[in-house]
């Protein structure tokens, strides 16, 4: 089986995987980083979004071997010294989550939105950018507020 | 107000674990020696099984077992059951075909379960599943709701002639006909309530473990009601005695009804883990979820309203054909009957209602409760018919509603369809919503839109729903196999912190926060010292779970009653310690005090005394830990008016919701932030049904909307933000003064959206989902002046 090595949340990790292993399977099953979720099998729902070399990726769309040598950040890698990242805090403060299943993907996508669009985000931009993340609970209203508030907090 | 008590928008206790990736959903759980399961499913909608050859699959790498319906039958497991009886018009109970958890000789829908393959890895299980060789004898399929019971149709089940499950007439047919005969005007509407796939974002999963030493099965399930699962799996499916079966619903990623039911996979995994003496894990992928989760809605109906010359409703007649799918899911029969016809009065004084529901079998996935369950179907029909009636009478939709509302001074109000509404002020909600939506100046906005080639429309929906199904005696008379009480245990630890055990289950609703607010309000214990525990039959006493917006209205009251018992016991303990008469002890803000003195002890000190009873009232049991059950006297009846304003582009058929206003009556709000979130989510579920979501089978029974590529879920750019407010009334039956809020949006939204589109295009009706193609076609035929 092919060997893979990558840096996940600042830790060097390696393993042997079947070639067909998806990045999300490697994260969840080999590394037991179960914060990244699988909500569909057609790369539509966005529950599995992680960052690979600083860009958001649906980790069900990428083979683990393709991430060989990459820097990967998952939802578990955002909080520092026990404090939540400002985007995580914004989701809590604005009730941007209910069942929590889509939430890790939402937060990882939100960070990517900020990285590409800056800290002052209007509602239309956030809604358009969230098109690849499906939530059944919140009706998006409070997710949009959370992303805007988190983006602002990240700029402060 | 008590800090973090009732009425405070407290941030949620559960959020941190979800936000840092430490949620604990069923598929996140892995145990030693775990195997992985893949179900072999029927690719045909309707077929006999001539033979199953498992030999090649068994020989495949890593395979532990391949089990079929024969193995299940040999062990006496199953079949799956439907828990509510509906009596058909011939006086017989509804027709209930056998529902084996693994097919026995025949399959009846695409996705029907034929075998389970268990292997060391999921990939090995999937590879081997493809090697199970099944010889099918393909039969014609029945998929269309409206024609399923027609003469000459292919028969699906021997026990159900003409594919009929039941024909359930309800109401005074002759009186209704007489009213129609003398009516000034009759409005008529044919409509379809489109089939939905419920789609909680976490797919269903099951992890079964068998302990040979204790002979206990532990099942981790994606369930909204662990105790109901345990009861059904034990009492009806013979999986294990109830005391040897533990069901855990850990973090569950949304339910919306789809995770109420006892599914084949859950039973089979529980049975298989004992058979192979290894833990067995199964997680649905999304396509499997589309194929095998219970679907929702799927009605074809004709509705008629008889009116006098003032537009006053005299009588309503409704003929409905409801699709129940291939087999009866756990509560399938209840949804298009009691949860539907009993809501057909809506907010109106319509004195006579006659309903006939024909429930049919088809070669499609079972249909059961989906957010709202029957009530959205009833509300959509009533609120669409009312708009058609307004047009027929030349009245504004708001005006015809006002003329027919049950007036505020008429409560409690006995409707002609069983329900007795306990409280409501429908005109107050309408007035407030119209003001917020700037209803009166709509025509100026419509004129402005017209200058841009767009068509604006505004739509009202004044809904009432019935939630917290109760009382148990009444649902028993209707044919339910269970009681619908709820239970709670409130336990002080000796150090003064509190564990609250509830039989409801939270899968997004925020019970860990809301219920802690109830306890901090009532007992004065700091919010951070309260932990709410749910979802594990080995931890929580008993429960009926979460559905039908019942958790706060029923489960919350059980918690309050347990708290009352603690206060009563605490008074005895405090009286002894403070050397006063029990009758002189007062309790407020967490302190027991002697009336008119400064002698007091707080509840944590009382709890400690109860566990360290060195100086203690004679004859009183030690411990500070109380149980309570609550069986409500009636449903609760949330209501409200939603107003949707749309802008339609007749050239493309694209509908934009430009403004959405909701004014709801949920009684008292415990956590307004959480309630508002429930309303938002419900509205978008309803908007999804109205604009986007349509589950479709082709004539051969293939599900052609079996992924998110083909089934349009609402996304962030399909919907706006919402304007939400409340017009509360006090429900006299509910000791906490609360109603239910989880389904309101999904009930109120679909007719508001479709009324708005019909208004924009000046048409009588458009069926859901009003996709751009459907709207464009309607715009082409409408006379758009």
What is the residue-averaged pLDDT of chain B?
A: 97
Name of the CATH class of the largest domain in chain A:
Alpha Beta
Annotated CATH homologous superfamily of the largest domain in chain B? Aldehyde oxidase/xanthine dehydrogenase, molybdopterin binding domain
Q: Report the biggest beta sheet of chain B as strand number plus sense, adding barrel if it closes.
A: 7 strands, mixed
Mean pLDDT of chain A: 97
Low-confidence stretches of chain B: none
The ordered string of helix (H) and strand (E) elements of chain A is EEHEEEHHHH
Q: How many angstroms does the end-to-end distance of chain A come to?
A: 47 Å
Write the CATH fold name of the largest domain in chain A. Ubiquitin-like (UB roll)
Kindly, what is the distance between the CA atoms of the first and last residues of chain B, rounded to a whole number of angstroms?
Answer: 57 Å
Mind telling me the CATH class of the largest domain in chain B? Alpha Beta
| Radius of gyration of chain A using CA atoms only | 15 Å
| Pair of chains with the largest interface and how many residues each contributes | A-B, 56 and 57 residues
**Topology-level CATH name of the largest domain in chain B:** Aldehyde Oxidoreductase, domain 4
Alpha carbon gyration radius of chain B: 27 Å
Written account of the structure:
The complex is a heterodimer of chains A (156) and B (785). Chain A has 156 residues and is of the alpha+beta class. Chain A folds into 2 domains: 73 residues, Beta-grasp domain (Ubiquitin-like (UB roll), Roll), CATH 3.10.20.30; 69 residues, [2Fe-2S]-binding domain (DNA polymerase, domain 1). Chain A has 5 helices and 5 strands, in the order E-E-H-E-E-E-H-H-H-H. Chain A has a 5-stranded mixed beta sheet, with helices on one face. Helix content of chain B is 28%, strand content 23%. Chain B is built from 20 helices and 30 strands. Chain B has a 7-stranded mixed beta sheet with strand order 3-5-1-13-10-11-12, with helices on both faces. In chain B, strands 7-17-16-15-8 form a 5-stranded mixed beta sheet, with helices on both faces. In chain B, helix 10 packs across helix 11, helix 15 runs parallel beside helix 16 and helix 18 crosses helix 19.
């Amino acid at each position: 089986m092919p060997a893979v090595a990558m840096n996940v949340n600042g830790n060097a990790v390696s393993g042997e995987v079947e070639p067909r292993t998806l990045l999300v399977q490697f994260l969840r099953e080999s590394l037991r980083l179960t914060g990244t979720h699988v909500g569909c099998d057609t790369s539509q729902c966005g529950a599995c979004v992680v960052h690979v070399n600083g860009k958001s990726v649906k980790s069900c769309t990428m083979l683990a071997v393709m991430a060989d040598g990459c820097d990967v950040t998952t939802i578990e890698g955002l909080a520092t010294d026990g404090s939540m990242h400002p985007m995580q805090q914004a989701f809590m403060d604005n009730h941007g989550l209910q069942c929590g299943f889509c939430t890790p993907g939402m937060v990882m996508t939100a960070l990517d939105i900020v990285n590409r669009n800056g800290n002052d985000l209007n509602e239309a931009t956030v809604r358009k950018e969230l098109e690849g993340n499906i939530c059944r609970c919140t009706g998006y209203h409070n997710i949009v507020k959370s992303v805007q508030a988190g983006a602002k907090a990240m700029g402060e | 107000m008590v800090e973090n008590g009732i009425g405070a928008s407290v941030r949620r206790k559960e959020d941190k674990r979800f936000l840092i990736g430490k949620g604990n959903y069923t598929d996140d759980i892995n145990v030693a020696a775990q195997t992985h399961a893949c179900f072999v499913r029927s690719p045909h909608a309707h077929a006999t099984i001539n033979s199953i050859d498992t030999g090649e699959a068994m020989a495949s790498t890593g395979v532990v077992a391949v089990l079929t319906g024969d193995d299940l039958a040999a062990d006496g497991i199953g079949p799956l059951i439907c828990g509510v009886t509906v009596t058909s018009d011939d006086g017989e109970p509804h027709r209930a075909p056998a529902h084996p958890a693994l097919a026995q000789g025949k399959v009846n829908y695409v996705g029907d379960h034929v075998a389970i393959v268990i292997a060391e890895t999921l990939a090995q299980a999937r590879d081997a599943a493809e090697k199970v060789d099944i010889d099918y004898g393909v039969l014609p399929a029945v998929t269309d709701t409206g024609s399923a019971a027609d003469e000459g149709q292919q028969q699906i089940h021997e026990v159900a002639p003409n594919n009929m499950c039941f024909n359930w007439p309800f109401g005074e047919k002759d009186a209704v006909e007489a009213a129609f005969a003398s009516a000034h005007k009759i409005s008529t509407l044919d409509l379809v309530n489109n089939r939905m796939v419920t789609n909680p974002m976490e797919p269903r999963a099951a992890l079964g473990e068998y302990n040979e030493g204790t002979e206990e099965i532990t099942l981790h399930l994606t369930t909204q009601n662990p105790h109901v699962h345990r009861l059904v799996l034990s009492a009806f499916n013979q999986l294990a005695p109830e005391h040897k079966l533990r069901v855990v619903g850990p973090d569950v990623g949304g339910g919306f009804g789809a995770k109420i039911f006892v599914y084949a996979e859950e039973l089979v995994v529980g049975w298989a883990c004992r058979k192979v003496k290894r833990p067995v894990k199964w997680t649905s992928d999304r396509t499997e979820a589309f194929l095998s989760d219970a679907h929702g809605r799927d009605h074809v109906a004709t509705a008629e309203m008889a009116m006098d010359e003032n537009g006053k409703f005299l009588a309503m007649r409704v003929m409905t054909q409801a699709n129940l799918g291939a087999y009866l899911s756990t509560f399938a029969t209840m949804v298009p009957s009691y949860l539907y016809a009993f809501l057909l009065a809506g907010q109106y004084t319509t004195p006579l209602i006659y309903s006939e529901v024909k429930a049919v079998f088809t070669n499609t996935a079972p249909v059961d409760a989906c957010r709202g369950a029957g009530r959205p179907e009833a509300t959509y029909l009533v609120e669409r018919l009312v708009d058609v009636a307004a047009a027929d009478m030349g009245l504004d939709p708001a005006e015809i509603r006002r003329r027919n509302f049950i007036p505020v001074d008429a409560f409690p109000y006995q409707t002609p369809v069983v329900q007795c509404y306990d409280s409501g002020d429908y005109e107050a909600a309408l007035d407030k919503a119209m003001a917020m939506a700037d209803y009166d100046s709509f025509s100026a906005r419509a004129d402005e839109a017209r200058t841009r080639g767009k068509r604006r429309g505004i739509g009202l929906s004044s809904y009432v729903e019935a939630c917290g199904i109760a009382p148990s005696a009444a649902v028993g008379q209707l044919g339910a196999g269970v009681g619908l009480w709820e239970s709670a245990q409130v336990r002080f630890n000796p150090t003064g912190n509190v564990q609250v055990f509830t039989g409801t289950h939270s899968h997004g609703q925020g019970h860990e926060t809301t219920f802690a607010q109830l306890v901090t309000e009532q007992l004065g214990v700091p919010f951070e010292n309260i932990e709410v525990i749910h979802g594990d039959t080995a931890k929580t006493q008993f429960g009926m779970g979460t559905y039908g917006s019942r958790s706060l209205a029923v489960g919350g009251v059980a918690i309050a009653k347990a708290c009352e018992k603690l206060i009563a016991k605490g008074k005895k303990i405090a009286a002894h310690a403070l050397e006063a008469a029990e009758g002189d002890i007062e309790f407020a803000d967490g302190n027991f005090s002697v009336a008119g003195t400064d002698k007091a002890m707080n509840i944590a000190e009382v709890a400690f005394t109860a566990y360290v009873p060195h100086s203690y009232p004679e004859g009183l049991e030690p411990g500070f830990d109380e149980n309570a059950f609550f069986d409500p006297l009636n449903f609760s009846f949330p209501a409200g008016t939603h107003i949707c304003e749309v802008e339609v582009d007749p050239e493309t058929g694209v509908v934009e919701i430009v403004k959405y206003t909701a004014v709801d009556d949920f009684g008292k709000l415990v956590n307004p932030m959480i309630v508002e979130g429930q309303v938002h989510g419900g509205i978008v579920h309803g908007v999804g049904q109205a604009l986007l979501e349509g589950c479709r089978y082709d004539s051969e029974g293939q599900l052609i909307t079996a992924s998110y590529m083909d089934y349009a879920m609402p996304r962030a750019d399909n919907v706006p933000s919402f304007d939400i407010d409340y017009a509360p009334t006090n429900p006299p039956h509910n000791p906490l003064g609360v109603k239910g809020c989880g389904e309101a949006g999904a009930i109120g939204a679909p007719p508001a959206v479709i009324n708005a589109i019909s208004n924009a295009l000046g048409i009588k009706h458009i069926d859901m989902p009003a996709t751009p193609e459907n709207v464009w076609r309607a715009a082409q035929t409408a006379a758009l002046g």
